[in-house]
Here is the input.
Amino acid sequence: MANVIVNRVKEYLKQYPPFSFLSEELLQTVASEVEIIYFAKGEYLFRTGETAKNHFYVLKEGAVVLTEDDGQGEPVPVAYCDEGDVFGVRALLGRRSYVLDALADEDSLVYAIPTPVFKRILTENNRVNQYFAAGFASGQVVVKRDLSGAELATTGFSGKTDQRGLAIFSGQSDLHFSGDVLSCAVHETVGQAARMMSERKVGSIVIVDKQGYPRGVITDKDLRNKVIAADKSYSTPVKEIMSSPVITLDEKADFATLYLTMINHRVHHLILTEDGSDQSKVIGIVSDHDLLLSQGNSPAVIIKALLGSDSVNELVRLRDKAELLLEYYLENEVSIPFITNVITEINDIIIQKACELAQAKHATDYPGVHNLKFCFLSLGSEGRQEQLLRTDMDNALIYEDPPDPKADRARAYFQALAREVVSILARCGFQHCPAGMMASNPRWCQPLSAWKDCFGDWIKTPDEKALLHASIFFDFRPVHGDASLAEQLGHHITTMIENNELFLNFLAKNALLNSPPLGFFRNLMVEKSGRHRHKFDIKRRAMMPLVDAARLLVLGHGIIDITNTRKRYEKLADLEPNQAELFLEAGKAYEIFMRLRALEGLKAHDSGRYIDPDSLGKLQRQLLKNAFYPIHELQRIIRVRFQLDLLGI
Amino acid sequence: MHTPSFVDRYRQKFEGGPVYPPRIGDATFIILDTETTGLDVKKDYIISYGSIKVKNYAISISSARHYFLKQKKVGREAIKIHQIINVENALSLRDFVKLFLDDIENAIIVGHHIHFDIAMLEKAVRPLGLKKLLNARLDTRKLAIRLEMGKHAGHQFIPARDYGLDALCRRYHIPLDDRHTAAGDAFLTAQLFLKLLKKAKQKGITTMHDLMT
Here is the structure.
């Protein structure tokens, strides 16, 4: 063997995770088995349906795009691979064939890493294992090394992961669900069901109708709580105590889908059916236990604990734990939609718990008004489901219009409630909003009619202050309480905007205030003065322009109930197919900025807003360059669409 | 004269049948480079040898070889260029030739200015009873000229310095690592060859016949 050549390959691989986790010796073994293949632009590395090759790929040079068929024979890009990215890992996951096409977008040199040698590593090296699991659990098809970089991945979480000792290389392949599902008919008795469960030594039974379609589930816990403790007869029909309706998915559902479905529906079992609906035959059952076993350290554990906790101290502890999870996810390149979904869910539960604790404390002091409906709103980034780090909290409270005589008492009650909630959130590590945009501020704790007037004023008189408020309050999202209050407010707002068309033109002008850093690469535009001199303000220069553009454009379509920036762009892509590509790119660009900011924030223990350009690697710069492109394009469209040049505003 | 069994084994590979398969994708290429004490085939000899194989348009790292030969005396000039003095694990001439012939078999020999390396290698195998190397051969320099300038480009129009290994590597975006080690240069040449083969394919050259003539 020629060490010069093997070393060359080794040195290259070593820069990138997961190879950076390997010992010199293992890496040597891997490197000496590599094949180097060159693909000309336009050639396919593999095609959908092809038998998975005996190797996976690392892109050494060039660009590869992974595409899937849109159903009409047109390829749709699913992921772009840059240098150092790992892809084509179906074989590694034990899958037989590829589900995507891999096309060389430029002349590309790839390293083919044989799977047999790597599979052995996966079973032996926990770190590598987790790295892959984190990626694939979130449904990623490319293991991006783009923004974390080898350095972070190797040093960032040392000492933490090794202790976890989990075998979580499950992704999709090691998740075992039981295909042999114990079931009984709806008219059977509880006694019979219990006997069947006991014989088969299982903790749950699916209740099916005549066609074999799932109607409910009974678990050990149901038998305990709803039969024995409730003193019911064993001849009670199962349908009386079963949990129903059941939540169903099909067997192709990946880990992330299963996971989020359980979290979102707060259920412990998912039924797999032939077509994924409850109108087809049962083919399997997955419990949260199965999922947890396959995932180890999981947000589900934290969420479950949060749901069960009833003290503020417990909330504080769990939110800190979530922060560690976040760090781990970010460093391991788990996809941003997955992370934000999990973190938003965790934050929302904390807010809900805070509301419940506050209600319990104050309700008795305010008889007569404590039953009024209210809705706690998250605003700004939390409202857009985009808060990763615990930055400032922005929130508000709406309550139903009380009858006049009770107005003062209602105000007093809800202000006390909101103050309590905000103080609990502050203890959980969410910082006070310096501009006071919190429900604890009496201005932002109002009955519905007052809120309608407030939004009405902003829309009718869009001065500077109104536009500033608009940028935060228009991204409201109901988190706790009666969501219909938020809906009524939303409806009022869209009607107001329709009747005051000029408002959008002002909003458009505002959306163009923050220009992206032109000449980023010739000379990075940095802040010229102040504490963050020579740093680049990623929030103002990159993220706000994208958020503002998305908000403006969906409002232009009369849509107020989608607040998430990526989802706004996806909706826009639907509504304006001829601009779809740009909108989707804008959504992706936003996620790139989010990840960079969050990583920066974790590193610097702040909001991550200011980035030192000198700390960026060459590839990060490259990535940013691509991400800036859609901003220019969007701003151009806005200028034309809202006729800003003509109006002279 | 009695020849060692590995020489016979090597010869047998060329008995009857075509020397290479019809399709480029099925052929085995061995890309090699030698570092020598100097440029005079009569006076100088091989210090080290590096090679790596390409098959089906892919370089396999496991096929990489790097051998050092035991030296009687090492010229000062060569030490200056290659910084090689006697190294551990250096092979006797006989051991080297055995490993070399067993490894190359009937692969197509590829290299930059390959005639020089072949001349040096033939000088090395001759004492073992093998007069000539029997493999087909391909020069990456000539291949690059042919692909870039056309088959019948006149010599006088070809700027020599554009077709050196350094210049070609730069033009084909191959980082110049480990230059002036036999294995390093063989690896660079292999990467260049891979890119040239692809370029040839795009020009419709997919058979060995077209590639070799």
Summary: Chain A has four domains: 3-164, 183-295, 303-499, 505-647. Chain A has a mean pLDDT of 80. Chain A touches chain B at residues 1-6, 8-9, 31-40, 61, 107, 109, 112 (CB under 8 Å). The domain at 183-295 of chain A is CATH 3.10.580.10 (CBS-domain).
